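FW: tagging you since you asked about this chain on Friday. Here's the raw sequence from the shared folder, copied in full. Didn't touch anything.
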Amino acid sequence: MPHWKGALAMLLTDRIQATAFSAGEQTAVDYIMEQKENIRNMTVKEIAGACYCAPSTLIRVAHKLGFEGWNALKESFLEEMEYLACQDCGQDANVPFEAGETPVGIGETIAALQSESIEDTCSMLDALQLHKATVILKNARIIYLLTLAPNRELAGMFQAEMLRIGRTVVIADQPLYTALIMDPQDCAIILSYSGETDSMVEAGQLLNERKIPFIAISNIGDTSLSRLAQASLKMCTREKLYSKIGSFSSAVSAFYLLYVLYACLFERDYERNFARKVEISRQVERVRTTTTSLIQEEPDPEESPDQ
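HL: got it, structure written out here
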């Protein structure tokens, strides 16, 4: 097993830096890192020729980095290069505005940053992982959402939407205890930006031992949490852990992914869920009034005007 397994969350480029290679392998790695996207249309023989090494050298590099073969490594490397290139343009997620900016200017900057973050998150959606996550949620008796304090408000909005379609979501900030009391018919969503918080990773290990499926939502890196999960979704990864003004990017990314999961589950029984949600909302919110025509509901034909 490569020595980086179980270490802090790593991008592939970080993993390459942390791996010990032979002299020949290092020459090939240096060439790949220098050429970046230029290797896209090169065959393994062409890259080996440019590095003055054998094709088998590149295969050994792939194996050391945890890939089955060169093609898998190349695909992952190019995807990461494309993602990182996008981070050099657009808003700075950590310090999106400076002192002295106008309130309207700040509002425009935050709007641009959050729009970019959602687009970024959307671009990383994987059809297979999203399908697996939806099936896990559909089959679950109770859905436990394990996350820490900063994400509780986001989790609460997800919980409220799920309740309206008859699904029970329990928000838990004691991950280890929760993992031990869950039933095999339940499932979990573990939301952790770093993907390496000790209690969350240990909870994931416990869930696997108890054969309880869970969905990981974490950063783009090869996190301990994503490796343990039965389905993994990637958040926009632009923010430092703490050297930032606020969680403008990661919060909207997490919010978006939770709502995508809700929408995918909703679609599985669309007509029933739509009817149920409208009826429940009508019963609960029937006393609310508005003078704004854009949000005004049509009168209920079953109710008389005097009611």
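FW: The chain is about 55% helix and 5% strand.
HL: agreed, and Strands lie at 143-146, 169-172, 187-191, 214-218, 231-234.
FW: great, closing this out.
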